Amino acid sequence: MIEGWYDAIVIGLGSMGSATCWRLAQSGARVLGIDRFEPPHRRGSHGGDSRIVRQAYFEHPDYVPLLRRAYRGWDELADISGCTLFERTGLLYFGPAEHLLIAGALESSRRYQVPVEKVSASEYPLFQVPSDYCCLLERDAGFVRPDLAIESMLNAARASGAELKSNEKVIAWNQVDGGMEVITEKGNYQARKLVIVSGAWGGQMIPQLKQHLQVTQQALVWVKPKNDRDVALGVLPCWTLADEKYPGIFYGFPALPPRRGGSGRGFKLAHHAPGLKVEDLDREDPALQETILDSIRDILSRYFPGRFENELILESCRYTNSPDGDFLVDYLDHFCRDVVFALGFSGHGFKFAPAIGEVLASMTLEGRVDDTVEFLSAKRLELGKIRGDFV
């Protein structure tokens, strides 16, 4: 059975899909969103209770204009939902001055006048960092709760008329006269335009991009503090830390109160670097646990000596990594701008969700690429213009 025509169909209702449905419906489009699971869920990249939001972007200054747009989007969504979504706790940066975490944050701050202060590590006695480490504070940074954010964006999309279908697996999609057709386990749907934001399943939806997308399993760890006040929300900022022994960075959050009853889980920290490669999207690799706990225990013993009990809660999420860690936002070749995709967010995309949704809605309805995402074009893969390895 073929359902009626839509202006756009969005495949994937995670962070970027929910934002895109919201922005499309907000623009007056007739939009259908489809997800194989019930979002928010633990099969994608948004699991784990919290995601850092920041503007002094060490990855590259090119992201800052898009981040400013995202900041406005988070505040707009909070007004719509009536929920506090973006907790501005501030964000600490610890590391050697020459490390990309520090040098990159300062460069983004300099180029776009993002307020960042040099502070003394002694002001934050929870952390025992080397005396030669640089310590920065970005006050207008913090975190969002991804589950609440996705729920809020989906509710905003529904309120503007979007039709959303969960627990419905997409089997195939193809071009038809006048637009696109999406075939699922439960029906066939047609639309003028198609948006693919299917996260870890992006390589299945767009096979020609599969070679450029590596899915990895990532660990998120919670530990019990000896003194709850040391890590309390309102006392401890979010933080990032570079350690030359490990690739990437470590990061963490103040302890969050439970969202729906129960007890809080404690102090969360994680390692931002590609984890174990996922060979089967329908299962998790138990080998991850001991691998990640070794590095987390090392970081806890060296930078937080004597501050935590040896009690651990471990969860996982997934990164879908591009070759250079930059996002892939573009039109799919050979479809006359009828197919838009946003993939490869490489573990640092959630904070951008309201802005990416706005960009994808514009690309879908207006047929043009916004200048804030031109540097994220997938054409760089074909042209060999990769900016560098993922940190």
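^ that was protein a. below is b, sequence first then the tokens
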Amino acid sequence: MGTDERPNASLDILILGPMPPPYGGVSAHLGRLVPLLERAGLRVGVLNHFQSTDMHFVVGALNRNPINYYRLPRRFRARVVHYHHSRWPQLVAVALGRRGSSARYILTLHSGDNHNRFQLASKIPFVSRITRWAFRRFDKVIAVDTRIASAIQNDLDKQRVEVLPAFVESPDEDTYRYEPSVEAFLDSDRVLVVTAFDVQFLHDGGETYGLDTAVEAFINLAGDLEGLQMAIFIARRPSRPKARRHLAKLERRLEQEGLRERVLILFGLPLVSALRRNAIFIRPTRAEGDAVSIREAQQAGVPVVASDVTRRPEGVVSFPTESVQELCAALRSLLDGSIPHRKEVVRRDVQEPLTDPFFNRLVRIYRTELMSQARARR
């Protein structure tokens, strides 16, 4: 359907954000959230960051083109426009597109390298000024954790900033079945599960999701633990030369150690069904917001080991970011049972996500903005 959209829709909420595929944390969040919002009586449409318009509530595709972020939201009679941050040009385009609109605008910051505070602290004065202007075009800014909120609070009215984690439970996704060979691999003795949206790099050159840290830890452990395997889920197959070279380097490293057959690299597949009783979920990221994947693993009763790059949910075993030695120590403690973890999974009733604190808080934010928009029109 390209950038075509279904025009003349009258909506309470128009969301600009990613929808699966690919299966990343934010796309999983929105794919679960929108049906719940519809059940709560809100008229919701989504302009997808990517190309797919298969879901009934997706009203157009943005294709990551900044021009579309400027022009497409203006074609809908939406009372609230909610932009889930993607990239700097798209942020500026959405802010520019607000001109003349009576809608209320919300921005959610999910994650990222806070080194330059989403370009607010750019060394290029023009970029930092434009970013500050763009942020102030939004009536409400939602940060998924306190670290992101603190990175932006000096540039915004504190009353405009809300901290709200982004996990929405879906009781149905764990029924997904992989192809038989993948199922057999995941059902083996013990599997370390790692995930990344894609292969990308920070300003200092470090690989964002820490796949290199996970691979080195696996190499250190695998010699003593013959039944240990690792599954790496990457939502988007790398396309840039640097990313492809990095992944190829990790594969060569495993081959040199004779371990390549004990590591499965999967692209474009949902994660939740891989979170089984025999799994340990690893999150060795060098930059982070509030990782949806960690909360998915905890909901599935899977132990989690994560870098301390940000504050982690209660129950997560943390290790110093980039420390292969400390990651190995944490994993050994889990594997030998010296760190207990919850093994039984208690599923909620399918209706209960509507009473989730996150969901209630988000609906309150939406309803407040809808009332503000109605007052402004009157």
